[in-house]
Specification:
single chain; 4 strands; alpha/beta; four-stranded parallel β-sheet
């Protein structure tokens, strides 16, 4: 998890996700090559470590491109970069050990449900939504079980409802006062800002 998400973000969906998933772990940082807990997970021969990061070389879990035979009896260990897209690219650039991992992705079953934030592009999701979609695709591929699919989305909705109530309370400081529009009604970014946002899937320059 990027330090800004860990220390500053009010709507930290990565932390909410961690609280719901008992086998998850949060590691704060920007570069992880010197983080012993991360490196131990990567080195453990009992693990099959992968990085959730979309791209042309990523195996699409929604299409069954990763199977139990690929794991060969090892435990699937998924690394997720919890940050903005620009922050995630920096984290990956500074972590060659993560760059070398096989990559996985999924095809979202629904657009982002984020009301209090605008996603940079169609198909982008919050960390919580991404984990929900990941678990759906893993269960579909018989790689994991997802017993409570409504739990994460229910918590996500309650968190946003709380943020919206705070925004409507004139006695609370630090919240916007304008009403939130529905995500599907928002205009896509254009110009320089829009062009910058379309580059969020570029590989870090250190990758070969």
């Amino acid at each position: 998890m990027h330090p800004k998400e860990f220390k500053e973000e009010k709507a930290n969906t990565g932390r909410l996700t961690h609280l719901c998933l008992k086998n998850s772990e949060i590691v704060m940082g920007v570069g992880f090559d010197n983080d012993e807990s991360v490196q131990e997970l990567i080195r453990d021969p009992a693990n099959f470590p992968v990085l959730l990061y979309p791209g042309t070389e990523a195996k699409n879990l929604s299409q069954g491109e990763l199977t139990t035979s690929d794991l060969a009896g090892r435990r699937l260990t998924v690394f997720i970069l919890d940050a903005t897209w620009s922050g995630a690219r920096k984290m990956l650039k500074l972590s060659p050990s993560l760059q070398r991992l096989p990559r996985v992705m999924f095809t979202p079953t629904a657009p982002s449900r984020y009301v209090i934030k605008q996603q940079p592009q169609d198909g982008c999701l919050s960390t919580l939504e991404a984990c929900h979609e990941l678990l759906l695709s893993l269960e579909k591929s018989a790689l994991d079980q997802y017993a409570l699919p409504e739990q994460l989305l229910g918590i996500f909705k309650r968190m946003q409802d709380h943020q919206i109530r705070c925004a409507c309370d004139p006695d609370k400081v630090g919240y916007r006062r304008k009403p939130y529009s529905e995500p599907k009604q928002r205009r896509k970014p254009t110009g320089t800002s829009g062009a910058r946002r379309t580059k969020y899937l570029r590989k870090p320059t250190s990758e070969t």
